3-hydroxyacyl-CoA dehydrogenase
Amino acid sequence: MNAQTADTPVKAELRDGVLVVTIDNPPVNALGVDVRRGLSAAIERADDDSSVQAVLIVGAGRNFIGGADIREFGKLPMPPALPDVCNRIEACAKPVVAAIHGAALGGGLEVALAAHYRLAVAGAKLGLPEVTLGLLPGAGGTQRAPRLIGAAAALDLILSGRHIGAEEARQLGLVDRVGASGDALADGIAHVHELLAARAPVRRTRDAAGLADRRASRAAIEAAREQTAKKSRGLFSPLKIVDAVQAALELPFDDGLRHERQLFLQCIDSPQRAGLVHAFFAEREVLKAPETRTAKPRAIASVGVIGGGTMGAGIAVAALDAGLPVTMIERDDASLARGRAHVEKVYDAQIVKGRMTPEAKAAVMNRWTGSTSYDAIAHVDVAIEAVFEDLDVKKAVFAELDRVCKPGAVLATNTSYLDIDAIAASVARPADVIGLHFFSPANLMKLLEVVVPAKVSADVVATAFDFAKKLRKVPVRAGVCDGFIGNRVLAVYRTAADHMMEDGASPYQIDRAVREFGFPMGPFQVIDLAGGDIGWAARKRRAATRDPAARYVQIADRLCERGWFGQKTGRGFYLYADGARSGTPDPEVEAIVEAERERAGVAPREFTDDEIIRRYMAAMINEGANVVHEGIALRPLDVDVAFLYGYGFPRHRGGPMKYADSVGLAKVLADIREFAKEDPRFWRPSPLLVDLVERGADFASLNHAA
Ligand code: 3HC
Ligand code: NAI
């Protein structure tokens, strides 16, 4: 094939003895089959054509190469394979130089490592992030990187998946120099001519001596193995990475490559890879809400926050960290002082940890102002209400916002459950009202549910997505209902957990099973952390409207009646001796559970961990399906992203809906029907789940359709 045909994503042009090979495969120059073919053909040409003295590889657009084409994983491999392309580059008889700008990630960096010389310009991002996709560098990265920069540095790069800049790459020896002009093509050409003038030889990374100190290399590998075994709970690829680097030390280069390939293919076949790749695309897909395509966002240059409690303060910090000025409104001077103190506390903690200087804090706090008068936020572009969870209080706040805010200001509420349509209907400008549902702690948690009431204008929705990006949040579009996406689904699987507790599983067994599944905490630990009183208040509020025939487990109420609200009171489901952050099982709680079983007339039975997970997940999946069915979530993937970023769902499982697909929807539905025999009121199969099973379809089919 001729590498110069117009439709190839790899252009090769001879300039003054240098074959300039440009990869032009938008958006990120991923190494799809045509790029691999084009690169191989260009190297063939360089070797065959006597007028070519050297080769320069560059990327067109914003990046060098963003990596292997992730969309090809799991599909039939198309030759040439990337490792072969890299070997072909390395084998070239003429000097090959890679000039890197933007991303040189994964396979992209592996291409560069196969070149004989490398430079990067300022702004470049180099890394081997395969681990984040459940993989290991599979095109020689685990063999070449340690030879080039040593085992310790290579392991750090590959196991962390972190991106490094040009200067750090130079210091590590990953690149030879940082380009002087900042233009990769110009710097690259200059470098090639220097090399040619100096008659620099072909210099192959496979022959580099980074592993020459065998003892130090072995020690680095063993240390990494020990650390990884401790840290990467349940993850498949990290230990394979250590194995692959060990092969680099112990085997000849070509055997090491073969070993790497085998390990890579094992990772490709693992369900974790499927889950992590799903997460990668899903977190990008959620950004494409319909309104972001049709409407132009309004400019947000200043923020008002009403309420300086847990959430208001966290939201203020998130906005301050994004460089925005924030005005906080509180009820009275004392509450305002507390609100300011909440904000300062976050920065003081950073100072204590050495992550911030007092001067930097002062500079940030200069952008914070507070007031007890709404007039102080007349100028803001967005006002975010985070006052008590009470519709009348919120309506009163919105009446004030309506009165003072300038035309065009976005009026947002952080309510967890309340009817945002009702809030919008209470003001004269419902088109400007939207839900921005942050998660606690709001400065740290990535999820932002953008709750879209009926009357909101499209540009306000687009503004919310734009604002989320500024705050470095992951926005998920949600419709109005009790709890939106996340909290609505949460309420259902927590209830399933309560049922299991009353039926015979201890809260400690449930928490352990859920942790072993991959969540950082079990449901009862979460309640203890958030404070049992919050849920108790909500249960009391809803008592009047609760279906009297529905099963209601009272165990949590018994704890709250004793003032056991969790960590903050020293005990909840667990005991927290002397302010400890992790609790220990409490025999008194077990006795209360036992007494409640008796009171409810339940004969306790044993649960296996597997049974616990089947029920917990079935409840989550079924309500997730309802949320999609009702249009509260646009697609199953929106539910997945909400759970990955707001509820600690294990990323390697991709989210609840992806997990359901991997189990098989027919199996999930069969479980629900089996559980329904005991409690048909609680276990009602979602119409969407039934429909998909009848059609032999899965949730993924709905992601593609949207
Ligand atoms: N393959 C296929 N598509 C990719 C891709 C890849 N490697 N990287 C990015 N894309 C797609 C995205 O899905 C997105 O598509 P969309 O517009 O349809 O949603 C588009 O390219 C733009 O991506 P971003 O929105 O992420 O663009 P940014 O400019 O913000 O970031 C980037 C660019 C830093 C390259 C970022 O996309 C990224 O981190 N990509 C993944 C890098 C990676 O993990 N590479 C390793 C791949 S595995 C590998 O190489 C295996 C090898 O060892 C054999
Ligand atoms: P909080 O009780 O910590 O803070 C509320 C603050 O609002 C108090 O500082 C109070 O003085 C102030 N306030 C009350 N009425 C006011 C008024 N009329 N004008 C100005 N300030 C007023 O409550 P929290 O936890 O911060 O919750 C706030 C909102 O955020 C609620 O709607 C809640 O449902 C929601 N939310 C809470 C989450 C959480 O985990 N705590 C998570 C996500 C949303």
